[in-house]
Amino acid sequence: MPSKSAVSRSVNLVVSGKPVDLKQIFKTPNPIIGVVHLQPLPTSPRWGGNLKAIIGRAEQEATALASGGANGIIVENFFDAPFAKNSVDPAVVSAMTLIVERLTNLVTLPIGINVLRNDAHSAIAIASCTGAQFIRVNVLNGTMATDQGLIEGQAHQLLRYRRELGSDVKILADVLVKHGQPLGSPNLTTAIQETIGRALADAVILSGPRTGSPPNLEELEIASLAAAGIPVFIGSGASWENISTLMQAADGVIVSSSLKRNGRIDNPIDPIRVSQFVEAARRSLSQKQQHSEANGSGRLMPELGKVKSKI
To answer: Which side of the chain, N or C, has fewer Cβ within a 10 Å radius?
Structure first.
């Protein structure tokens, strides 16, 4: 059985010789991160030619997330589909840099970047230049078969590039990312441990099979045990109906679809839905804390035997 420290939720990792505490970014050990889906950017198939309108909607959505109580924001080029497999066009990088710079001057929340489908180099460059604090990487290590073709993780290049930049931007990495299938049949525990231990992710993300689909509770429990103190985020499908269950086995959540007006992905973020989601998540976290204190042994211990048997 793992030691108590192995299942504790202290979030410390050593990167480049410096201890890193991710709680310092979000001012909470259990962040709620909302996603700003940018409208089609220059050179994308649906680019409409009006960057000013894209900036305006991004500012509106960032404000809605901040006023609704979110702890962070991820900016991503979601509507640029179909996506480039790896490197995006320089015009996309330029537009995202401009938008992120505007948002950092508008809201005080920590901001992250995801350059789809898997341009982590551009994401960390944008973050380093704008003062954004973290990035999301869909495939940091391993190989995934996706609708863009085979995507290979480039952790070795990304981590060296981060050091060259002199950057402290944190890397939140998907494990067995949505809209993709791994080559072979990897074990979830092994995939989590390698993403942390060999690819040096600062946190891991677990999603359902597609946008809007949540991971199941059992997978989150296995992931949390395998992560051994490194944060595990819910990466898709969270809503105020299921967050009370999912947050029992996760440290944070990245949410978008359920925050949109009428729950439709192409609609703008609704500040009322943000507030409802945040309230439900915080209520769940309060219940989890009370349960943990009552047991005196942390949230994983009651499930340890059940989860361990499935690893």
So the answer is: N
